[in-house]
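thread: overnight batch results

M.L. [08:02]
morning all. the overnight job finished for the chain we discussed friday. pasting input first so we're all looking at the same thing
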Amino acid sequence: MIMRLRTMALAAATLAAGGCATLQSPFDAHLASPVAQVRECADWFAALDASIDAAGVRDASATRIAGFPYLRTDRFSASLRAEAARDERALNALADRLWGLDFDARRHEIANLPEAARVELGKRTGEPEITRVAARTRECGRLLREIDLAKPAQRAALLERLAVPDDYVSAYRIAGLYAVTQIPFSSGVRRFQDETRAAFARDPHAPAAGTRIRYSPSERPRLSAARIAAMVQPAFSDPLAVPQPSESDLELLYAHFAPSFEIDTVGDDDRPGALRWRRGSMPEVEGADVSVYRQVAHTRYRGRNLLQLVYTLWFPERIAGAGRASGARGGFDLLAGKLDGLVFRVTLGPDGTPLIYDSIHPCGCYHLFFPTAAARTTPAPDGQLEWAFVPQTLPAIGADDRLVLRVAAGTHYLERILVDRADSVVRYAWRDYGELRSLARFGPGFRSVFGPDGFIAGTDRPEGWLFWPMGIERAGAMRQWGRHATAFVGRRHFDDADLFEKRFEFDLK
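M.L. [08:03]
and the structure it wrote out:
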């Protein structure tokens, strides 16, 4: 019965998605253009998409825009639609951003194509070099974007379609009688919150289950408040006013705000590392290469765009029985499975001072907020149990202080945030999160750790078969940035542009 309901729900969702895919204007006009250069560029994108889909290497981090296969959006970019509708310069800047998101995704998709497919595409460019595939994609994307922006109807269509679909499957909630089944799930959420509060309230000097190993970044640059503020200011020439620090400034910001991770280590499943392709069908953690993946994100607060720094740590697995009061491991466990991790995000104010921190696991689970004195929670609407769970508030962080994230053994739950000046002799290396989208295979070629649906294959948990009525597809499975639904009761995404604006009041300087 459950399988039948899930199949019906998936069919309904597929039909809904198919309706959006039929919105091919203005791309169909480009395919039929009397101008050879335009027609050839449209043909190029059609052939490129056919190759990508045939090979199953579509990147799911940003959302494709129907009728504009050379543009993609994320939730933050979609939130800039109102500004773009009012101002021509802002519209052009937003289009540049959407084009950049698409080209970034296509670089990874092209790299992940089988060599034969890339060679065939290379032949279409008129030159034998495979590197021309990316160059041709960039050139044609720019051309078609410029043509579309020159026409009012195309601009209007772009802004109308500029949205990211909800990562919740409404059909699942309908088939699973969400209005009724959310009641027992709410009890589970309350239990988790109570257990988390108890963990954060424990004596920080209490013995660990195993050995606490602290992993720290290689260095902490000494940056003045004025220097940081200058780094996070949007460029004066940017009509969208989006903070976009230079690569060199980002290196300094990442290192300055990077946390240490103090991990209670009982077994190899508690040893973090870089993801690697070996012989299997899913990536594995290389414990000898302790790495933290980093990326930039943005959020909005009352019309202002704020910079965010995101740090992701990966573990080999969440072992069965982890977190049991008896301490016994093994047996059946709804939450156990291959790969686990911790995502920690720092949201900076316009002056570069941290306003709030928050974290999830890469499944989108266990969303915790850690406000500073500059942030206050707003009242939750009725029934919004997972509105903003705050297990700890943080004091002001001194120039020589570093946040230390204390991580539990087995579950890899975040159990406390300490403020300390002592680093560890065990250092972690930096890696860009984008590397995960095109990772060297054990054999020839490259492959994303994420599938075209945004999930890491082989990381599903038994909980997915139980929790689907909440509308979260494959609950517990590891998923790609941009695909993190974070609430079982209600709707919430980790990258919602208004996530903090709805839930907190910030004191901005």
